[in-house]
Amino acid sequence: MGGRGDESRKIEIRRVGVAVSAGIAIGRAFLVGRDLIKEPRYHVELDDVEAEVARLHRAIAASDRQLEKIKGKLAASQGESDFHIITAHQLMVKDEHLVDAAVGYIKDESINAEWALRKAVDDIRGVFDAIEDDYFRERRSDIDFVGERVLRNLLGKETGPLQPPPDAIVVAYDLSPADTAQLHKQAVAGLITDAGGKTSHTAIIARAHEIPAVVGLEDVTEVVEDDDLLIVDGGGGVVIINPAPSTVAEYRDQQRREVAIEAVLLGNRDLPARTKDGAEIQLLANIDGAEEIDDAVAHGAVGVGLYRTEYLFMVGDVVPDESTHYQTAVEVLRRMAGRPVTIRTFDLGADKLAGFLEEAKLDEANPALGLRSTRLCLADLGRDLFRSQLRGLLRASAHGPLRIMFPMISGVAELRAVKAVLEEVKTELRASAVAFDEAIKVGIMIEMPSAALIADMLAREADFFSIGTNDLIQYTMAVDRVNELVSYLYEPLHPALLRLLRDTGRAAREAGIPVSLCGEMAGDPVVAPVLVGLGLTELSMSAVAIPEVKGVLRATTLTDLERLVERVMLLPTAQEIREAVVAHLEELGVQLGASR
Ligand code: PEP
Ligand code: MG
Question: Closest ligand to 497 CA?
């Protein structure tokens, strides 16, 4: 192995972090320094206070413009996750909590703008520090990035883009979304960071651009030196620093295998997801925005099984109106070119917050069990927004095969209540001679045990079901889906869950309505065969998971999967069930793990 660094004298070091974006990368380290600026601190004369405040406002405006420029460069070519995250930073930079607090410090304590800004940032950081929630803890780095940018503008220092050479592996304490989004354009091979977790922005963007990444490595920036040879195994969450030649050879093999498997899987794109004995399974995509559709189709999605519209409310400070809902839905239908699309009405609350909800300061002790989702749509706080969405969606239904789906339905009374609102909106549209699909199908998500247990009753009044296991697992096992401390209990193959799935599927079939499953477990190649064996014929998942799931299903027979399910339903723990399924798939010669 040739090389710039003298690897022969360095010891191979292995570190394990959080696996956030699959794939193997082998390349040279490009260290991004933390480069925190030390701000000058001094008092200003009373006469100069206003000038100091004006200086702060100018730096904030400059920061906003810079972020706008970065967004402008990204918008045309990239996924909107980057775009939305940078928009969130723009909102943060202008947020009154930050700006008013900094101005307050300048005026009350007669201190310079840099010092005041640092104090305001530290205050906000302190609030995030106190929150026992990974998602919010990770938002600390957002406020740091924003503060750092304003500080640089106050001091007249450049914030140019990072410029690693192509094929480098970027090593950082943490990366701002603006940096990460631009790295994609530099064709970096991989990313590793000290900070971060599964929902950190680095993770979200790396996944969106399929850059292998491992985060949460704690002090990797202190172990790695510039130009060190690195291996990043993004699926396994492993980083190898200065690997021995034999290790490099081993990972190159794995890399080749993964690339070959991926190519074969993507080659399946236009083949049906059909078992060997002819059972047709529909594999659809879960999306959060219209811009994800081209990728979904490229991965073989035959429709959109779940469009989570709440993201329309979570970015920017404008609440989406009827026209936004209409235009977005029409755009989704246009891009899907005749394939079916299921749009879910907004599922806000709990961990998904929007400006209007934050302003309402609900102060709930248990938000996951509180005024969220459909309950919010039926409450005074959400009713008008819900009606606008329904009007927009109904109007869009005149343009293509659109179904409307309500989340978090607890029982028949709630279903009737939302259907009554829908009927009112339809009546209004008819009165104004506005076209919509009179035969539009209206379905519900089954994501609470109460709904699963009376699925037979709900099936008489809903046109279709989609089982939302992300929440169904959380409410069945009483395990918070975003709490790392209890994540070991979050078990898709728990026998209790499998019974709920079996019974819900049976109820739907007996009532003659379609049923699909759109929780994350649908995209797990070990779990998907169990779902098919349970009788589910429609699975909706992240688009990247479709090729592998399809490959597994095409290698099996329905009769065989039904037998397998009969057998595993008698096993008492999720672990035994998983082991039995893996053993069975391996016996069939099914290759697992290509995209993980
Ligand atoms: C679910 O709960 O399984 C689901 C698909 O919805 P979300 O993940 O948006 O709650
Ligand atoms: Mg849900």
Answer: 1
